[in-house]
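FORM 12-B: Structure-to-Sequence Request
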């Protein structure tokens, strides 16, 4: 058995988290009152009311929030396609991400909210589930879990790892502790070169560079009833979408749309703000510019409207599917950008700004392959959209290219997942 080393930083973390146990219930109850937890999530985070299990060998995947949940499902589905008689537990930390797992409706996949990183909860959780392999997605690093996994000598992998500059700065302040934690996993599969370099600077010995798993994630769901209603009402309308826009970006997009309407009277812009609290500002700007607007999906489609505002979270798939172009917000101001693959999977050509640090490698690759375009300012964005709508063949050529690129990257992702963990599955489970 490997000897478990405990340094001062590790001891301090264990002590602090153990003391936090005293107020953990109060903390979660407060979140419950604020509708940030449910009774189920609250109790499961305290390692209570864990779901039923069967006697099959179990692989545990932790996928904290929405993006990780989709990637976790991709890994789970790749495993289940190749191995029978395996059960997969996917843990999440948020209610929205739990819905993604539960909506997958796979009888071989169980969902549970991850208990808090407190030693007694961690031990109870691992003892109950007894996973044969543990997989963490992206950026989750929980020391109590890491140490207990090591203690039990469970094969352990971090897939699609992302290590931001901010996280690196924080962890580098406690370098010895960080080095201790990041060398526990068997392999850390990094989604980009920046992440690989940051782990290397902290003296990780187990890192590799892989394709981003998000390329193989299932497309965002389409509401078939809404999609049919919209497509039947299209006539000669052209749609494009401004998705996940932030405060300050919406005005520029509306200005652009106002100018485009002079060239394309049948052009419809769909605005999906990142935060619903921005809707009133969007409405005010639209009305100042005399642009007729309505909501989606709240009201029936009417051809008189020139702009629609999405007033519900989590339904972008339907509107990507009816749009030819997508402007991705959070990139024209310094918010780090949003995932372009979700739009591309629905054959939307992507325009974005220069602030894409959250998905830097993805954007660079897609820009190089002419699947997406970086645009520096409002005037150039107007010119680019204008050009593509005047040259429809350019859109068609780009969409054909998108399909080819995504299929190639998806195949690469699946092969890399197999190469990283399938040998371990065969040896530990069979």
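FORM 12-B RESPONSE
SEQUENCE OUT:
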């Amino acid at each position: 058995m490997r000897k478990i080393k405990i340094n001062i930083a590790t001891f301090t973390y264990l002590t602090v988290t153990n003391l936090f146990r005293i107020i953990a219930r109060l903390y979660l109850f407060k979140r419950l009152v604020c509708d940030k937890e449910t009774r189920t999530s609250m109790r499961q985070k305290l390692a209570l009311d864990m779901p039923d299990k069967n006697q099959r060998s179990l692989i545990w995947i932790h996928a904290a929030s929405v993006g990780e949940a989709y990637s976790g499902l991709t890994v789970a589905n790749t495993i289940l396609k190749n191995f029978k008689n395996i059960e997969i537990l996917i843990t999440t930390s948020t209610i929205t991400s739990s819905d993604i797992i539960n909506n997958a409706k796979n009888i071989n996949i169980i969902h549970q909210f991850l208990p808090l990183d407190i030693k007694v909860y961690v031990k109870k959780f691992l003892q109950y589930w007894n996973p044969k392999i543990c997989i963490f997605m992206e950026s989750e690093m929980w020391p109590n879990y890491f140490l207990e996994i090591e203690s039990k000598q469970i094969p352990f992998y971090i897939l699609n790892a992302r290590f931001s500059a901010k996280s690196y700065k924080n962890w580098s302040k406690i370098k010895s502790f960080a080095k201790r934690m990041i060398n526990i996993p068997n392999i850390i599969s990094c989604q980009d070169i920046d992440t690989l370099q940051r782990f290397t600077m902290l003296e990780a010995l187990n890192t590799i560079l892989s394709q981003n798993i998000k390329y193989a994630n299932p497309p965002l769901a389409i509401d078939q009833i809404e999609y049919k209603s919209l497509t039947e009402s299209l006539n000669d309308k052209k749609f494009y979408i401004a998705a996940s826009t932030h405060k300050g970006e919406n005005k520029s997009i509306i200005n652009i749309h106002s100018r485009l309407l002079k060239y394309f009277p049948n052009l419809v812009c769909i605005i999906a703000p990142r935060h619903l609290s921005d809707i009133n500002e969007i409405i005010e700007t639209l009305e100042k510019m005399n642009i007729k607007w309505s909501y989606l999906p709240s009201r029936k489609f009417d051809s008189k409207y020139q702009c629609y505002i999405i007033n519900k979270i989590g339904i972008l798939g339907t509107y990507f599917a009816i749009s030819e172009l997508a402007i991705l917000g959070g990139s024209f101001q310094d918010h780090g950008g949003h995932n372009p693959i979700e739009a591309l999977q629905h054959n939307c050509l992507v325009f974005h700004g220069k602030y894409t640090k959250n998905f830097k490698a993805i954007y660079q690759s897609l820009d190089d392959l002419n699947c997406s375009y970086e645009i520096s300012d409002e005037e150039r964005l107007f010119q680019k959209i204008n050009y593509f709508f005047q040259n429809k063949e350019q859109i068609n050529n780009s969409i054909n290219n998108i399909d080819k690129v995504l299929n190639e990257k998806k195949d690469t992702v699946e092969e890399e997942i197999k190469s990283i963990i399938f040998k371990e599955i065969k040896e530990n489970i069979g």
